[in-house]
Structure formats: C-alpha cells, structure tokens
Design a protein that fits this description.
This protein is α+β, with helices and mostly antiparallel strands. About 45% of the residues lie in helices and about 20% in strands. The chain has two domains: about 140 residues; about 100 residues, Sandwich (Immunoglobulin-like), CATH 2.60.40. The chain is built from seven helices and eight strands. The longest helix has about 60 residues.
C-alpha cells in the first residue's frame, strides 16, 4: 500500500478520535515510528480539531459567567486577618478535625468548559461521519458482490443451456435418422449460415443459428420448408432463442430456407429478404 493512500484511508482520523480497533492502533503506532509523514498527519488532524473547536466557540452572556462563578463560591483573599477557606481547612487538619472539602474553592475557567464541550461535539460529529462512510463503503461492496454473484449465476445458467443444446445437436448429428441441412447465402456473397436438424422419424425440426445478423425490433426470421417446390411455414425464430431452437414439425421437405419478415411472420416468403437456403 502506498503511504499517501494509507494516510488518506481514514485510519489516522479513527486513531486520533479513539475509535480505531486494536489492530489499527498497533498498525498506526508502527507506521508513525517508521514514517514521519504518518506522525505529521496525526499532529495535523489533532491541531485541526482543536482549531475548529475554538473557532466555533461562542462567548456566553456576562450574566451566565457571573452565575457560574457564584456557584463555585469563589472568594478573593482579603487583606485583613480574615481566614481564607484554605486556611480553615488547614487548621482543621492540624486540630485532627475532618476538613470541609466543599469549602475549598474549585477554580475553573468557563472558557475551557465551553471549548471542551465544542471539542466533544466536533469529535462526535467526525466519528459519526467516519463510521457512516465506513458503513456506506461496506454496503456498496456488499451490493457489488451480490450483483457479481447474480451475474455469475445468470451466465452459468446460459452456459449450461448452451452446453445442453450443443450436446443435443451432437446426439442428433450422430443419429442416422436425423438429417443435418447446412443453410448458406444462395448468392454466395455473405457468410450467413444456419443449420437445420430434421428428424425423419418424429418429423421434429430444430434450428441452430450459426451466423445471422441481428434483426430490427420490428422484424423476425422465419423458417420455410420447400415441399414439392412450394414454401411451407416451418415457424418463427424466437429472438430470445440463441442456440438450438424448436420449430414446427415438417412431415416432408426437400429443402429449407430462412427469410426476414415482419414480426409475426408472413404467409409467403419475401424473396428479396432471403438470407440462407440449403437442400436436404
């Protein structure tokens, strides 16, 4: 992993905010000893949080400050012989008396209290943002894996279907009762090609489109059987069928041909749209 990529991965922010896991903490400790750039990134993020806290600090009203100081029971030592609370606590200790802890003043700067609350808010907001980014990234990776798995399953089903069709075609080619007819461009100008398997016993017809151009959305290929010189409809080629396609039964034929017709087919073939043809 490149050093800059590691620094920008978010682990530095998690480390400073105290939300990194033990493995990440050990890794950052090791990296900052080895690379000064990592320690610099830690220092810069820490300073940025502190600057952001004081930048957004809000000056409270004067009356709030006075109330806060009054609640702390803060007293300035008098110049007279009046004993201060600290001196009272000391004398009580000397006289084996339990000192009154509540009488000892708590000196707290209100500005640091306000800054501390803002720091906690900034840290909390930053931590929530980092956790949300991690959640979003993990969710995106999960969705991508699910989509990839579904795609692989779909491709696997397609390959299995094609494999079964080719196995069926191989078995039909080995069957002496099945005639295999190669259909090619009658003008011998294009390399269009298709294969018809015609079972003379069952009269079943199967079409394998080896190489035919994709038709327009309003067009569809139609298979024809030539019987005593007349074309007989042998079925429309389903656009969804990409391998061995079952067509209509044909009791008798001397040849087969394929034309491109409008969707749904035509009662007679359109001869200027004749793509391939082959004799039995």
């Amino acid at each position: 992993m490149e050093l800059q990529v590691y620094i920008e991965s978010g682990v530095i922010e998690s480390y400073v905010l105290g939300i990194a896991d033990p493995e990440e903490i050990l890794e950052v400790d090791r990296m900052k000893e080895q690379y000064p750039e990592v320690q610099q990134a830690i220092d810069e993020f820490s300073i940025a949080i502190e600057e952001q806290a004081f930048k957004n600090a809000v000056e409270p009203p004067e009356e709030i400050k006075q109330q806060l100081l009054s609640s702390f029971q803060f007293h300035h030592p008098a110049k007279s012989n009046t004993e201060t609370p600290l001196l009272v606590a000391y004398k009580s200790t000397v006289d084996n008396e339990t000192p009154n802890i509540s009488s000892i003043p708590s000196i707290t700067n209100w500005k640091y209290l306000a800054a501390a609350s803002i720091v906690l808010f900034v840290v909390s907001a930053t931590a929530n943002l980092l956790l949300y980014n991690r959640y979003t990234s993990t969710k995106s990776q999960y969705v991508a894996l699910i989509n990839e798995r579904n795609s692989l399953q779909a491709n696997n089903q397609v390959y299995q279907t094609k494999l079964r069709d080719y196995q069926s075609a191989t078995e039909m080619m080995a069957d002496p009762s099945v005639a295999m007819v190669q259909l090619k461009d009658p003008a011998h100008k294009k390399d269009n090609m298709a294969t018809v398997f015609w079972d003379k016993k069952t009269k079943d017809v199967y079409l394998l489109t080896n190489k035919l151009p994709a038709p327009n959305t309003n067009q569809q290929y139609q298979l024809w059987a030539l019987v005593d010189g007349k074309p007989v409809d042998a079925g429309m080629l389903d656009p969804l069928c990409t391998s061995l396609c079952k067509m209509k039964n044909i009791p008798l034929a001397q040849a087969f041909a394929i034309t491109l017709e409008k969707v749904g087919g035509s009662p007679v073939p359109t001869m200027d749209q004749l793509f391939v043809m082959g004799n039995i």
